Amino acid sequence: RQYRHGEASEVVVNIPDGQVVFGEHHPLVVVAGPCSVENEAMIVETAQRVKAAGAKFLRGGAYKPRTSPYAFQGHGESALELLAKAREVSGLGIITEVMDAAELDKIAEIADVIQVGARNMQNFSLLKKVGAQSKPVLLKRGMAATIEDWLMAAEYILAAGNPNVILCERGIRTFDRQHTRNTLDLSVVPVLRKLTHLPIMIDPSHGTGWSEFVPAMAMAAIAAGTDSLMIEVHPNPTKALSDGPQSLTPERFDYLMQELAVIGKAV
Ligand code: PEP
Ligand code: MN
């Protein structure tokens, strides 16, 4: 979309605790939480722990895009209710993924930001539908999408009438899957800054696939100039139903937040 002079280059979201702004000239926004919403106790506990550490949004999947049809698929609608509960008790905003347009309305009822995952980045009918509703959209980069593909996907949402899109880099497929799950492309930060006014988020959890590599890449993302971060946090990663190996414990997340506050944009 043509950048128009005076146009806001930020996404403003009203969460229970107040207003959060994603954008270059605003404090870093941290989104944290488990890959999947597993049960009430774990999602409420995670919400409280990440809130105490300084996160503004709780992430958690109700509908999960899993490679295997036999893997945990998410609890669906009942998980949305648990996210609503976590929102109420913590004051955090909620970010959760829509996989199917049929679920969009009920997700939009509880989510403050709607995530379109990497696997649906070029699901054009879904993009048109999230573009035709009013909740902000977090658009993750497809694992084999060029920056042009990604920006054109964002354009579908903008063209359908929704100006509030955040772009999230989550790693792309390269040739090494032995040591990292994906290759986190941090060069997108300056490149997107040049090409678009849309706010930028970096997800080092999916980007590396291993919790031990997440802190370094979170710090690198801030050094590159990201506006926000998405970090997977689970109260007991070894027992997680999805993405345990890349999830930080709440203690490690709390420590990371202290490290981030030292190096970058005020958290
Ligand atoms: C997620 O955020 O849990 C997720 C499935 O991400 P991606 O679409 O980037 O794989
Ligand atoms: Mn995940």
TrEMBL record:
It is an enzyme of class 2 (transferase). GO terms for biological process: aromatic amino acid family biosynthetic process. GO terms for molecular function: 3-deoxy-7-phosphoheptulonate synthase activity; aldehyde-lyase activity. The keyword Glycoprotein does not apply. Keywords: Transferase. The keyword Zinc does not apply. Residues 19-262 form the DAHP synthetase I/KDSA domain. Its EC number is 2.5.1.54. Signal peptide: none annotated. This is 3-deoxy-7-phosphoheptulonate synthase. It comes from Halotia branconii CENA392. The lineage of its organism: Bacteria, Bacillati, Cyanobacteriota, Cyanophyceae, Nostocales. The chain holds residues 75 to 341 of 352 of the full protein.
